[in-house]
Amino acid sequence: KKDVIENYLRNCNIVSIHTPLDNKTDCNYNIETPEGQKELVKSLILADKFSQFYGQRMNVVCHMELSIKQQKELGIYEKVKDFLCENLDKYKNIDIGLENVTIRHSGVYDNTILVREINKENFGTTLDICHALMSKSITGFLTDKGKCESNYYKYETLTNAFKYNSGVLKWIHLNNAANFGQGYGVGKGHGCIFDKDNINDMNTLVK
């Protein structure tokens, strides 16, 4: 069985692992929760094994759902930073990419703030294009309907996303979004692929 797995891995080139988001019991696996921190450690251990197997650096992508303000109010922000620093120092051959959330969450760009505060070479951001597109479409809709009062969120753009990630960006998760990100699967809202059926979306993104 070990030989089969090793042969399979030799025919792949795994460079990144995404930590789990939740399970069937709706457990929150974001990094500000104990459960999420356990899953991140498991992902780092696995990435470390792949790093040794392939002889190359690995990337682990994780999520943070609560804003920095919310974490400070709960008294957990410094603990989250300490947890990340401990593991960034332990797994120096692993780059951790903290992914952006959508406008439906608080602190859309708080991942970039946290990365800059920790300021370690192997800690950066992962820019999820799907999440950025969802924020763009949602804020545009709300602004047009007169329901978006904050100038900070009016007509959110991909330009903003790249601006906030400038200097700290490690990886780009290149995927599409439709229907405000509602639904999962091929051709549905969240994490759609770019293909021949929506080539105009890619052309618009490139522009």
Give an overview of the whole structure.
The protein is α/β, with parallel strands linked by helices and 207 residues long. 44% of the residues lie in helices and 15% in strands. It is built from 8 helices and 7 strands. The strands form 2 sheets. It has a 5-stranded parallel sheet.
Name its key features:
207 residues, alpha/beta, 5-stranded parallel sheet, two-stranded antiparallel ribbon, 8 helices, 7 strands, globular
The major pleated sheet works out as:
5 strands, parallel
The protein's oligomeric status is single chain
Give the C-alpha Rg.
Answer: 18 Å
How many strand units?
7
User: How much of the polypeptide forms β-strand, as a percent range?
Assistant: 5-15%
| Mean pLDDT figure | 78
So what's the overall shape? globular
Count, helices: 8
Coarse structural class: alpha/beta
What's the short story on this structure?
It is built from eight helices and seven strands.
Topology:
Blueprint: H1 2-10, E1 16-18, H2 34-54, E2 58-63, H3 68-74, H4 77-90, E3 94-99, H5 110-118, E4 123-128, H6 129-144, H7 158-165, E5 169-173, E6 176-177, E7 190-192, H8 199-206
Parallel strand pairs: 1-2, 2-3, 3-4, 4-5
Antiparallel strand pairs: 6-7
